[in-house]
Amino acid sequence: MATRKDAKEELTTTQREQQQAVNKALDETKDVINVSTRESAREIPQYTQRLGDIQEQTIKTTREIADNCIESQKEIISIYQSVWTPFVENANSRFVDYLWVSPKGLAETYGTVVSSFADNVITATRLANNAVAANMELFSTALQQTKDNSKEFSRLGVNAAKVFHEASNDVVTIGFSAAKTVPSSRPTR
Predict the structure, then answer these.
(1) Structure confidence by residue, pLDDT tens digits, 42-63
(2) What is the pTM of this model?
(3) HEC assignment per residue over 20-75
């Protein structure tokens, strides 16, 4: 028959085996997380490159849109200039004192409008890029705060477990002490 000492040693062995199994499972989980984070870190240059490519493509597309718009407007102005010129000259000769309109002035004004439009699109692109960068910084800050908070929650959990362990040990110690001092009410044989 097993003695009390044997039972206690068996319990200690079982606890040790359980602790080793738990530690092994947690270590394996930690290893899997480390592998995943290393793989993700290797992909960062690809994401950075993609973001840069998108920004470059946006700027290039904006420039091409502006260039296409200007070229088409040049053609349109050239086509209609043959109609405008006689009309404007006729109007200018009749209303010289009241109004002066020239095709050159119209073209310059139109060029200014198109240039302003292109500048506005480029500025909007720059603002969008700044907003993306600001949100990335905000996300980075939130991620750091989440990491700090998780460390604090882990520390709280460990402290609570230690307090529970100490209280359990106190209860067990007091319980055994009380059991030893209370005389048995059963008759001994």
Answers:
(1) 887 887 888 788 878 877 887 7
(2) 0.42
(3) HHHHHHHHHHHHHHHHHHHHHHHHHHHHHHHHHHHHHHHHHHHHHHHHHHHHHHHH
